[in-house]
Fold:
Amino acid sequence: MKKKFGAKIGLVPYASVVIGTYDENGNPDAMNVGWAMQVGSKEVAINILKHKTLDNLKESKAFTMAFVTKDTMVASDYVGLVSAAKTPNKIEKSGLTCRQSDYVNAPEFEEYPMTFHCDVISITEEFGNTRIVGEIKETTIDDRYLGNDNLPDFRKMGIVWFEDTHKDYVLMGDVAGKAFSVGKKLKEE
Ligand SMILES: Cc1cc2nc3c(=O)[nH]c(=O)nc-3n(C[C@H](O)[C@H](O)[C@H](O)COP(=O)(O)O)c2cc1C
Structure:
């Protein structure tokens, strides 16, 4: 029997990312975002409510998007629980190490193995959220996490995804099969 859940279950798996921005005085802020996705070949979108980060994005027009890992999960969760509007030393308390991105006007956090560096290209109101679309200007990946094929090894990084139904951070699982390949056998029959 198939049970009905209306529209309560989101499009799993959700990426789990931390958005780095500067406020109007150049102070770094970070917030956890579960509603993020790829919307073009170089474009990513985040959906955010009225947080300090939204003010920052409108002002600075740039952000970094760091991928949450098992090792950065505690700091990442913390920056999703506390607002820089009420806790100005939020970044210090998170323990994250902040540096200026070499590519955009936003802070980068050293502890994350993989980061997108983005310029804001649009800000629109839709479906009760503000949608920010950013163009990825650069992607930086700690070379300790590249595989033998010189491509990123996401499992080695310990990247997690956000499971919104139970509110869990979930480690990536095993490879189940080769995409654009496993279906070929039916095509050939
Ligand atoms: C797992 C997790 C996912 C979250 N996803 C979102 C999201 O997609 N959009 C959003 O507006 N807030 C989201 N939040 C809440 C913000 O991260 C939180 O309100 C944060 O304190 C805002 O920080 P700021 O006020 O310093 O910008 C999430 C929080 C957590 C813990």
